[in-house]
Amino acid sequence: MTEPADASTLLRDDDLVLEPTSGAEDLHGFAVVYGGERIGTVALQRSPGKAGRTLGSMRWNFSTGPGAMIASRALRIGVEYAFTQLKWTRIEARVPADDPLGLRAASIAGLRREGIARAPRGEVEQVLLARIVDDPPAFSRDGFVAILNAGLPRKRVIGQGILRDRDGRVLLCELTYKGEWDLPGGVVEVGESPATGLVRELQEELGITVTIDGLVTMNWLPPWSRWDDACLFVFDLGVVDADLVDQMVLQRSEIAAVHWCDLETVREKATLATTELLESLADAPLPSYREAPRQPE
């Protein structure tokens, strides 16, 4: 019989606590307590046979209240315990494909998508996610890119917008996960139009609601700096007062700051693809379809 985990061992993150429950052979169970209230459970299960020396799985159950960010903190505590105390080198989880909260929490906690476990007709497929002990930290640049690459479609679609102030400057976002600044926007979800995806991204990341004034161009981006290639839809978001930035609520995990930029600042700060796009747009209207030149690594 396995003893319950020692409550003093890496099971607390500020006001979030994993309290050990009764142990069983090869099983470590925890109650998740947040702000003094029990919100769910996390369990770590060793793999059978010799594999159990270094491999195991994780499952969880949360109430609907906490949200993905709180759930992900609990999962990170469980992963850390598995690696540091149980000495596992790999931890896996299978999450129903129709559980967006569970999938988001697992990804934020640093588990990468590795595939789909198919299911018979009428049953829900399972998404296989895993984390390895020497994966880069989830919130590092390499870790963030690896998690996104693992979960995104091979041919991805990005929606970005050109938002100008009354002096003709363009809004650029200073990102937390790369050094260059970029146009606001992001990856379009499966089943979502590029325009709808752009509006959603700006609501989530900048806290503003924008109106699409039309398509500027569709720009194909070649593979660059560990990112796969992408189809980039660039939309015109019109002209606004410069003080709009004072009303923005930034998603700090991805957006460090926003800046109004003239073309000289764009050349100094922006990604090479964004610089090339805005320089070309300054000379003449862009064709409806274009291909960005390959960029040096």
Structure commentary:
By secondary structure, the protein is α+β, with helices and mostly antiparallel strands. The protein has two domains: 12-151, Gcn5-related N-acetyltransferase (GNAT) (Aminopeptidase), CATH 3.40.630.30; 156-291, Nucleoside Triphosphate Pyrophosphohydrolase (Alpha-Beta Complex), CATH 3.90.79.10. 24% of the residues lie in helices and 34% in strands. α1 crosses α2. The termini are far apart. The model has no long low-confidence stretch (mean pLDDT 90).
Write a compact overview of the structure shown.
Keywords: Hydrolase, Magnesium. The chain has 297 residues and is an alpha+beta fold.
Notable traits:
single chain, 297 residues, alpha+beta, Aminopeptidase, Nucleoside Triphosphate Pyrophosphohydrolase, 2 domains, 8-stranded mixed β-sheet, 5-stranded mixed β-sheet, 16 strands, 34% strand, elongated
SSE layout:
Elements: E1 12-13, E2 16-20, E3 27-34, E4 37-46, E5 55-62, H1 67-84, E6 90-96, H2 100-108, E7 112-117, E8 126-132, H3 141-151, E9 156-165, E10 170-175, E11 181-182, E12 185-187, H4 194-206, E13 215-221, E14 230-240, E15 255-261, H5 263-269, H6 272-283, E16 289-291
Parallel strand pairs: 5-6, 9-14, 13-16
Antiparallel strand pairs: 1-2, 2-3, 3-4, 4-5, 6-8, 7-8, 9-12, 10-11, 10-15, 13-14
Helix pairs in contact: 1-2
